[in-house]
Amino acid sequence: MSRNPHHEPPANADATTATGLRPDPDSASPSPLRFGYGTNGLTDLRLDDALALLADLGYDGVGLTLDHMHLDPLAPDLAARTRRVAHRLAALGLGVTVETGARYVLDPRRKHGPSLLDPDPEDRARRTDLLVRAVRVAADLGAHAVHCFSGITPPGTDEDTAWKRLAESLAPVLDAAADAGVPLAVEPEPGHLLAALADFHVLRRTLGDPEHLGLTLDIGHCQCLEPLPPADCVREAAPWLRHVQIEDMRRGVHEHLPFGDGEIDFPPVLEALAATGYQGLTVVELPRHSHAGPRFAEHSLPFLRRAAATASPSADHRGEPSATL
Question: Closest Cα to residue 244, out of 265, 276, 216, 271?
């Protein structure tokens, strides 16, 4: 298993894309941020085609969701497949984050099942094993982080029991992350046990603040339910930030939207993110827009580059979440 202890992204300033084109230097963002696009929003494309598309469009990297249609984490020849993907990423000059939010990768009948919180310890172990596999894939790809989330608290499970299960289930994953030198970046997800930034700190303290435990910050989720505006959430999360997902969203409604369809004022968010010195990928996450994934990928990068180059006052859309969460 290869290791990338420094998590250095592949250099791509001079990379020629799959179609022989080079990214237009005039379109490059002056921001230090590195933008990617999630494969969970390109599920109608073969992985090789998706990676070539993103390189041609000028993205810096990809958020690679381990799933049956792209890189199947349960495939018997996973190591060989991972090596091929690593070579392709290097040839295209794309950095990568490994994401683990595939809906039915473990159970064809239960979305995101089984979870780290399930009552059956064997079911929890299946999710833990998936995350350990993801860490190994990430190490072999030279990924800068592995993303995961807690899952929804099962009916009839009290909160203390749920937190205990989460901590116990993640312990082997954190051991694998420490061994591989790849951070585990837990995402606060609306409706989950670990739903907000404050919940991440509960987990961090419960586990004893391990070095390889970090945070995935989803900018849309900040708009959806955090008490602080998204730019302030970025500053609050900065010491633990290991991965960033980005899309538009409305207050109180957990629906991932294309840029411009929600309420977020992006220039101050990206300004705050750049100021933290964050070196990972900022990945567009539009998993429900795969039907037109190439079009949204094409439009998203120019939007982010313009927003990153623009300074404007931070919009404050604080309010009470609706019952639609």
Answer: 216
pLDDT of residue 30: 59
- The pLDDT tens digits for 243-301 are 999 999 999 999 999 999 999 999 999 999 999 999 999 999 999 998 999 999 999 99
Residue 171: other Cβ atoms inside 10 A: 13
Q: How far apart are the first and last CA of the chain?
A: 41
Q: What tokens appear for 97 in the block?
A: 């984050």
Contact criterion met (CB below 8 Å) for 258 and 289: yes
Distance CA(180)–CA(211), nearest Å, equals 13
CA–CA separation, 177 and 182 (whole Å): 5
Residue from 232, 166, 238 nearest 204 by CA: 166
253-257 vs 248-250, strand pairing mode: antiparallel
Residue 185's nearest CA partner among 82, 54, 278 is 278
Q: Which helix (H) or strand (E) holds 27?
A: none
CB-based contacts of 264, cutoff 8 Å, min separation 6: 219, 220, 223, 230, 248, 249, 315, 317
Rounded Cα distance, 207 and 217, in Å: 19
Which one-letter DSSP state was computed for residue 267? H
